[in-house]
C-alpha cells in the first residue's frame, strides 16, 4: 500500500500517484487527465444542489502534486474544461492567481472533446492537439498511434470489486500494450466501469493509495 508506485511503461520509468497522476521523470512532466473545471458551476446553474469549492479543491490537489514532484511541465490530457466557462465563474477568478504562483511550471493541455466548447477562452494555457514525449503520444482519446505508446484520458475508467456483501468501486490506471488510460482527476467526473474481462493491467486508486488490480 503506497501513494506512489514506480512503473515501467513502453521501456520508460514513470511514477504513478494516488491523486490520479503520472510523473515522467525523463521529461520532468506531470500528467493528469479530465480535470473538467467548471462542472460544478454548470450543475448549479441548472438547479442542482452541488456544493461550491470543487475548482478550489482540485487546484489545491494540483499544487500538492507540483510541490511533491517539482516538474517543469504540467500537462492535462484533455477535458481541462467541462463546458465554456461564464464570466464570474469561481474557476476563472482563481486560475490566473494560481498560474502566477507556479510561473516556473509550463501548464499545458491537450484539447479534449469538452474543451472544444471553450474555443477562444484565453486563460494562459498552452494548448496542443497532441504531444510526443519520449516513447509516448499524449492525446485525449485512447486510440492507437503507430510507433508510439498512447497516454490518454477520456474514459474515466473505474473497476468494481465485490466479495460477498462488500463492494468497492475505484478509479484505475488501465495499461495495455499500446494504449494506457489515466483515471480522471476532477472530483465530479464519475466513471466508466471497466469490464473484468478487459485486457491489460490495472492499478486501483483507493482513498489516495495505490493497489495493483487483479490479473
Automatic annotation (TrEMBL):
Its EC number is 3.1.-.-. Keywords: Endonuclease, Hydrolase, Ligase, Nuclease. GO terms for molecular function: endonuclease activity; hydrolase activity; ligase activity. Pfam families: Metallophos. Residues 30-127 form the Calcineurin-like phosphoesterase domain. Gene3D superfamilies: 3.60.21.10. SUPFAM superfamilies: Metallo-dependent phosphatases (SSF56300). The keyword Nuclease applies. This is Ligase-associated DNA damage response endonuclease PdeM. It comes from Halopseudomonas laoshanensis.
